[in-house]
Amino acid sequence: MRLRDTIVAIASPHGTGAISVVRLSGDEALQIVNRFLNKPISRPRYVHHRELFDTSGSLVDEVLVVYYKAPKSYTGEDMVEIYCHGGILVTQKVLDVMLAGGARLAKNGEFTKRAFLNGKIDLVKAEAVLQVIEAKSEKALKLALDNLKGKLSEEIEFFRRKLLDILAKIEVSIDYSDDVIVDDSEIRHDIVSLLEMLRSKIEMAGKGLHLSTGVTLAIVGKPNTGKSTLLNRLLNEDRAIVTDIPGTTRDVIRGEIKIGGVHFVISDTAGVRETEDVIEKIGIERTLREVQKSDVVIFLLDATTGFTEDDQYIYELIKETNHVVVWNKVDLASNVQRIGEDDVLISAKTGEGLRALEQKLLEKVRLIVEEGELSHVTSKRQLEYLKRVYANISNAYDQFKKGYPFDVISIDLRKALEEFDELLGRNYMEDLIDTIFSNFCVGK
Ligand SMILES: Nc1nc2c(c(=O)[nH]1)N(C=O)[C@@H](CNc1ccc(C(=O)N[C@@H](CCC(=O)O)C(=O)O)cc1)CN2
Ligand SMILES: Nc1nc2c(ncn2[C@@H]2O[C@H](COP(=O)(O)OP(=O)(O)OP(=O)(O)O)[C@@H](O)[C@H]2O)c(=O)[nH]1
Ligand SMILES: [K+]
Ligand SMILES: [Mg+2]
Predict the structure, then answer these.
(1) CATH architecture of 136-425
(2) Could you report the predicted ipTM of this complex, rounded to two decimals?
(3) Any idea where the TrmE-type G domain is (predicted)?
(4) DSSP string spanning 56-100?
(5) 183: annotated binding-site residue?
(6) Stated pTM of the model
(7) pLDDT tens, 263-285?
(8) What is the 74 CA–ligand 1 centroid distance (Å)?
(9) Is the Cβ atom of 78 under 6 angstroms away from ligand 1?
(10) Is residue 168 classed exposed, middle or buried when 0-12, 13-18 and 19+ CB atoms within 10 A define those classes?
(11) What is the tens place of the pLDDT at every residue in 340-357?
(12) In CATH, what class is 7-122?
């Protein structure tokens, strides 16, 4: 067994609570903790009631302590968890005692990294741990928990198996080309069907990512239509500056809310119009970029002005996007020229029509959300690897169609196999692993 230093961290949220958890992992975890208890513990997976003292023998706290004996622990190493009272000072003292006893402060995600390095979880599951913690909607949480149980890992394993079968058939025909007659049409069929499965996975995956990150919504319109007022109304908060001066908002302003269980990331943008103002111009460029990035766009019109030339200009820019046409300020006027059949009428000021708008938004993102649920791809990294796998197999298939020899074709298929392994973290590179785990909080 490898001897690694013993790490320690506060595993519970920082701040005052009823109980805090301080945990240690490593060969010396038990020995370090026992030094400071009124009576040492040794029985694994048992809750011990103890007193904990500091290096000078003063009582720090009355605690509960659990020992997890390697390899039956979260990290696969010897671990100890200390449950102390949840005060900031008490918790910090417990941590300090462990540091004084020889443990080292854990880095972000180091416990989970060790679980991965010790083969307790694969990389996709490690990502799922982070996503369980960060889940902002019921659906994102469910996906993350599914993946923690191995849902996506199993699917990847299934695709990988199919690829292995194809490679095996090809290798056999390379090695025993004199004795074995390979059925080209069978290999062709296998490759095509694998490519098809991967393609549909990748297509859905693009949508699945929105579940983890939230659905993005941009509010755009000419100056003074009430975009910032609407943002504030949706967030129920005074986030953006509202004035009656056109061109008030210059930068993109974001806020997050949940509508009907769906997590939205909303951006209020600079009003779009022809302008010579340099700063405003930059703001408008940012608006347009925001439109490109968004899953759904609110095109906000002003019922006091009607549909103007500026509106026409903006409409040309957004009409191909997934958008909702919204007429604002209906409390003041009803100069509404419906553009489509489902224009929504609201007053951001009084709140009239807001429920209908929320329903319309949910309708517009339903596909994204539903298909996303099916995919279980929850990170850009996972999607990136699936795309690379697809590209390699697709190359191999092109060569196959051109009648290249099998030993050439197998090169790209092997590359795809390696991509699968990296996706699961089998062939991991140190840098990649560090990037993934550094997103965790200390103690995880
Ligand atoms: N107190 C506490 N609660 C926690 C955790 C923890 O580390 N400590 N977890 C941490 O994130 C999560 C639970 N995940 C865990 C996963 C595996 C093992 C574990 O001991 N696995 C052993 C034994 C399996 C068994 O016998 O059931 C193993 O895999 O060998 C513990 C917690 C959430 N709640
Ligand atoms: N009566 C009424 N006034 C509104 C409504 N919505 C916004 N306003 C007013 O319209 C003016 C402009 O509102 P903003 O929210 O700043 O408009 P904006 O689209 O963000 O403007 P820019 O950032 O300058 O592009 C303010 O005086 C608001 O109080 C509404 O529904 N009814
Ligand atoms: K304004
Ligand atoms: Mg504004």
Answers:
(1) 3-Layer(aba) Sandwich (3.40)
(2) 0.66
(3) 214-366
(4) TS-EEEEEEEEEE-TTSSSSSS-EEEEEEE--HHHHHHHHHHHHH
(5) no
(6) 0.70
(7) 899 999 999 988 888 988 898 88
(8) 5
(9) no
(10) exposed
(11) 889 999 999 999 999 999
(12) alpha beta
